[in-house]
Amino acid sequence: MIAFTHRPRRFLSLALPLAIAVLGSAARGQDAEKPVARIVRALEARYRAAESFRAVFLERRSEGRGSLQLESGTLYIRRPGMMRWEYESPETKLFLVDGKNAWFYVPADRTVTKAAVRQSDDARIPLLLLTGKTSLSRVCRRIELADVHVEAAGNTALRCLPARNEQDYREAIFEVDAQSRLVRLLVREPGEIETEFRFGRWEENLPLDPALFRFAPPKGTAIVDEKTLLGNPDDR
Q1: Which of 88, 125, 152, 235 is the most buried (most CB within 10 A)?
Q2: Is the pLDDT at 124 greater than 90, yes or no?
Q3: CATH of the domain at 68
Q4: For residue 57, what are the β-bridge partners?
Q5: Structurally, how many domains does the chain consist of?
Q6: Quick check: is 54 in a domain?
Q7: Residue 176 belongs to what domain range?
Q8: How far is CA 111 from the centre of its chain?
Q9: CA neighbor of 75 nearest in space, from 93, 87, 60
Q10: Higher-confidence residue: 167 or 175?
């Protein structure tokens, strides 16, 4: 099932009017950062307060103007660091993070792809912040308010620029409701590629069996290990 992406210029001002303008702009910038920090703290605190979660999701993926794919299913989260995305429509698939590796299984293809979480650039990986495995400050090198359409009044959108320059996505938009629940994640990649996840019916502290987050490839399933494909067979 799963997913989850600015540098100030330094200058010397010699003119007093420009200096005043710069100081005024800096003060406004600090004021703008305060609500961002408050929203981030509330989001992270909400998902730290429970040991497990369940939600339904709708995934939309588009590649330029010529391709649109819609899928839906159920997301399970267990702290620390585990996610299970059960795709139910239009076909059965599974994306699972066991805390160490990410597995993507397509029963119809009898194939599973395996990748170390720290090396995966899957669009669902930013959502590890909900599992207690990371934080927005680690996922993002900069977080700011995003001027985008939100799903409901009272919601807030945050723009995240990826912390690692080698990440494939350009930015991620996190939309949070008034109860600090994540309602949408939009990941934008180069080439006009967008992956959007919408979440609903969040439930907390469910008795989720740890076995739900372990993957055992069915007999006859081909395993494609991304590490081996990259010429690094050692797990280090």
Answers
A1: 125
A2: no
A3: 2.50.20.10
A4: 73, 199
A5: 1
A6: yes
A7: 18-229
A8: 24
A9: 87
A10: 175
Q: Are 78 and 131 spatial neighbours (Cβ–Cβ below 8 Å)?
A: yes
Which token pair is 86?
Answer: 């059960």
Terminal CA-CA length for the chain = 26
Mean pLDDT of 139-147: 89
| Number of residues that make up the chain | 236
Position 5 in a domain: no
What is the tens place of the pLDDT at every residue in 150-160? 989 999 999 99
Closest listed residue to residue 181, CA positions, set 203, 207, 206: 203
- Tokens 């999701």 found at: 57
What is residue 170's predicted lDDT score, i.e. its pLDDT?
83
Residue 66's identity, in one-letter code, is: G
CB 95 within 8 A of CB 2: yes
Residue 189 has pLDDT above 90, yes or no: no
Query: Is 1 part of any domain?
Result: no
Tokens 């540098």, located at residue: 7
Is 64 among the domain residues?
A: yes
Q: How confident is the model at residue 232 (pLDDT cuts 50, 70, 90)?
A: low
Three-state secondary structure string covering the chain: CCCCCCCCCCCCCCCHHHHHHHHHHHHHHHHHHHHHHHHHHHHHHHHHCCCEEEEEEEEEEEECCCCEEEEEEEEEEECCCEEEEEEEECCCEEEEECCCEEEEEEHHHCEEEEEEHHHCCCCCHHHHHHHCCCCHHHHEEEEEECCCCCCCCCCEEEEEEECCCCCCCCEEEEEECCCCCEEEEEEEECCCEEEEEEEEEEEECCCCCHHHHCCCCCCCCEEEEHHHHCCCCCCC
